[in-house]
Amino acid sequence: MVGPRRDGRPTALPDVLQCLRAISHRGAEQAFTAAMSPRDGQPFVQAGFELHERLHLLSLRLDGRGRATPGRRTFRGRPWHLRAVLDIDRQAFDPFWRFDARTLKEAREATPVSRYRVARLDDRANGPLVGYAVTGRAGPRGYLQRLAIEPAAAGRGFGTLLIDDALLWLSARGVHTVMVNTQETNVRALDLYRRIGFVSEPEGLVVLRWTAA
Question: How far apart are CA 142 and CA 186, in angstroms?
C-alpha cells in the first residue's frame, strides 16, 4: 500500500518513483494506493499506476443536528470483540476491502479522536454482535471510517442505528461536516447514506494499482 506524503506536502512524481524503487527492491510485484482524489492521484498515474476502483464520496452538513434511534443503543467496542468484528467485516466486504486487526487499528488511529461502537442483535449486554462502526473527528470535520453489518442482519436498521450514534457523537463535539466514501458497487450502503441525508460530492475518489513489469 502506498499513498500521499504524511507531512501534508503535495506528492510529486519523484516521491512516487522513489517509493516504487524501494518496494521493488523488497520484492513487491503489485501496489495499491489509498483512496484519493483524482488530482492527488496524478503523480501516481504518471509513474505507471492504473485505475483499480472508483468510490463515491458523500458529505452531510450537520448544522448542530444529531439524533438517537428511539429505544435502541450501541455498545462500546472492546478488545474482546475483535474476533466477532473481523468476522462481520469479512462477511460484509470483498477480499480487497476487508480489515484485519492491523487495518482496523489504523482506521481507529487515522484521526486525532475516534469512536468505536458495536451493535448487538438485541439490547442484552452479551447479545451477539451484528455490526460495528468506526467514526473519526479532525477539527470541525467528521468521518465515517467504517461501517459493517452482518449480511444476515441487513435491512433491520442496524446500519441506521450505528450512523445515528456516530452523527450524534460528532454533533455534540461541534463537527460541521461529515464525510464518507463507499464502493460504486455497494448500492445498499449508498442508498442508506442518501436516505440519512448524505449527498454525493461532485468528484469521487479513486484507488490506483501498480504492477511490476
Answer: 21
**Are 20 and 44 in contact, with CB atoms under 8 Å apart?**
no
- Superfamily name and number for 64-175: Gcn5-related N-acetyltransferase (GNAT) (3.40.630.30)
DSSP code of 98?
-
Mean pLDDT across the stretch 12-37? 93
Report the predicted TM-score, pTM, of the whole model to 2 decimal places.
Answer: 0.90
| Residues 93, 108: Cα–Cα separation, whole Å | 18
Domain extents in the chain: 13-55+205-211, 64-175
Q: Residue 114: pLDDT above 80?
A: yes
Nearest in space to 57 (alpha carbons), one of 175, 170, 166, 179: 179
Nearest residue to 93 via CA among 150, 49, 166: 150
